[in-house]
Write a structure and sequence with these properties.
By secondary structure, the protein is mainly beta. Helix content is about 0%, strand content about 45%. It has a four-stranded antiparallel sheet with strand order 3-2-5-6, with no helix packed on it.
Length: about 550
């Protein structure tokens, strides 16, 4: 806290004493009280003889005065927006203990109000930008003195280039509509210059510094180009910031996924065929073209459709285009045909159950190409199981059978050519044949005497193998005639002894043989017990 000094100027004289506020006493020749706090105080005076009445008076001590500090100035630094205008700019100086301020202004700066005070208003003439001196100077004064001078530096600076423009860059959803674009406010900018392709409409969100956000309306004729912006003030124009707005017409869609064979999807009875392409970003619709007469089309407008082909369909295409706000792509197409079921291979025959309950198995190597099932027909017997598959079992009566087995491969739109094999089965014996002597060709008459039908069978040595036609260009027909009931094993080998086929047959069974063989000569070896017959066959 500042203090002061009180000096007594009267009455003065030897022996006089002086008392401050009744507490502190001094004796002449001392006449001053030091370190007195500010405020109102009482001085009492008395003589050394005590013959005079005490005299009192009041004095006031002012605070200790001091020199103000250098002022702190606040106000705009970059004054470009105000140069050459009549708009006033305010500056304020602050200094403790100051009672007045002395402002010194540079050329082309005019004081409007506030001379000698802590706050002034000024205007800037047009020449201010080009001059070198852009300093405002100010000092503070009090009864104790004047402070050091403060220099406040002004600028007349071009605005900096705006930052990144934010807003959509894909023009296709914007055609005929409005989008918003913006940059962060630029310090010192008094306005913004926006530009875009001719035909666009730009609407500032507000005048001056509020123009950092605009709305732009894009015409349907808009093509790929940039939206640009510059910041401006009285000093000039900033660099340019740009954002490219792209108009992308959609490209041809990716490959179509779906069945190319329509057979399983043809009415009546066919299931729906589904076709799809990967979804395309920014696409508003998908347009599919399907064969005439398509039934139950669903999904038009999306990237996946389903439908059933009409009865009688043979060939055609499924195609799709995509559309966005910029236009329609070229088509993506997929050719759809019908595939005929391939003809079955050679029918293989095997005996499952011998006489008298004869059951045979007829088999193909499998479903043929493009087939969904196999249609079997049997004359002379009854199909027990497997119709529609590649293998069936057939029951024959014990009587003589002269018939056939056929197979056709089918799918929903075609039937293959017929594969067939002849069936020639002798009647089953009424009773099992009696033992046959080595040199005898007849049944034992004692064991057969009760038979109502007397049958003469070949002797064991007379096993006969019939193969015809020989040579052939397709199948051989083979039949083994024998009196024995033993199993008959057949092998087909070539001239180098390589095995091509082996199987079993029953006596008197007629089978087709060799359709799968390549042209050449082969040996057909028939073995029953100890008997072996070998026949040379030729296929052209």
């Amino acid at each position: 806290v500042a203090t002061g000094t009180i000096t007594v100027t009267a009455p003065l004289g030897a022996g006089n004493s002086y008392t401050l506020d009744g507490t502190t006493t001094i004796t002449w020749p001392s006449v001053s009280f030091s370190a007195v706090a500010p405020g109102v105080h009482t001085i009492s005076v008395s003589s050394s003889f005590g013959c005079f009445a005490a005299a009192t008076t009041s004095v006031t001590v002012d605070p200790q005065p001091f020199t103000p500090s250098a002022p702190v100035v606040t106000g705009l630094t970059n004054v470009c927006p105000f140069v050459g205008t009549a708009i006033t700019v305010t500056y304020t100086a602050t200094s403790a203990g100051a009672t007045s301020y002395n402002w010194v202004l540079p050329p082309n700066v005019t004081l409007v109000t506030g001379a000698g005070t802590s706050t002034i208003t000024v205007t800037f003439a047009a020449g201010f930008t080009a001059q070198a001196n852009k300093q405002i100077k100010v000092s503070a004064s009090s009864v104790c003195g004047t402070s050091a001078q403060t220099i406040y530096y002004l600028l007349a600076q071009f605005p900096s280039t705006p930052g990144v423009i934010t807003g959509p860059t894909d023009a296709c959803p914007l055609l005929g509509t409005t989008a918003t674009y913006s940059v962060a406010p630029v310090v010192g900018a008094s306005g913004y210059i926006w530009s875009a392709q001719a035909g666009t409409t730009i609407v500032p969100a507000g005048p001056g510094t509020l123009g950092n956000t605009v709305t732009i309306t894009f015409p349907t004729t808009f093509t790929t180009s940039a939206v640009t912006v510059q910041a401006v003030n009285a000093c000039g124009t900033s660099g340019t910031r740009s954002l490219t707005i792209v108009r992308n017409n959609p490209s041809v869609p990716s490959l179509i996924s779906g069945p190319t064979n329509a057979c399983a999807h043809i009415a009546p009875g066919g299931t729906s065929a589904t076709y799809t392409i990967p979804a395309v970003e920014g696409v508003s619709t998908y347009t599919w073209t399907v064969p005439a007469g398509a039934i139950g089309l669903t999904g038009q407008g999306t990237n996946t459709i389903s439908f059933t082909y009409p009865s009688g369909y043979t060939s055609g295409t499924v195609s799709v285009t995509v559309t966005n706000g910029c236009g329609t792509s070229g088509p993506r197409s997929l050719t759809i045909g019908v595939l005929q079921a391939a003809s079955p291979g050679v029918i293989d025959v095997a005996v499952t159950t011998p006489c008298p309950n004869r059951v045979y198995t007829y088999s193909l190597p499998g479903l043929t190409a493009n087939a969904t099932s196999i249609l079997w027909t049997v004359t002379g017997g009854t199909i027990l199981t497997g119709n529609g598959t590649s293998s069936i079992t057939v029951s024959y009566p014990s009587t003589a059978v002269n018939g056939s087995v056929t197979a056709q491969a089918i799918n929903n739109c075609s039937v293959s050519t017929i594969r067939s094999t002849a069936v020639r089965l002798p009647a089953c014996p009424l009773n099992p044949p009696p033992p046959v002597g080595k040199n005898s060709g007849n049944y034992n008459t004692e064991e057969a005497k009760d038979n109502t039908v007397k049958t003469t069978l070949p002797t064991e040595a007379s096993m006969e193998v019939k193969i015809y036609p020989n040579p052939t260009v397709r199948d051989f027909i083979m039949k083994v005639i024998t009196a024995s009931g033993e199993e008959i094993n057949v092998r087909v080998i070539d001239n180098q002894g390589r095995l091509h086929k082996s199987f079993r047959v029953m006596p008197y069974q007629t089978i087709a043989l060799g359709a799968e063989l390549k042209p050449g000569s082969y040996l057909v070896e028939v073995r029953q017990g100890t008997q072996v017959k070998t026949t040379k066959v030729i296929k052209f």
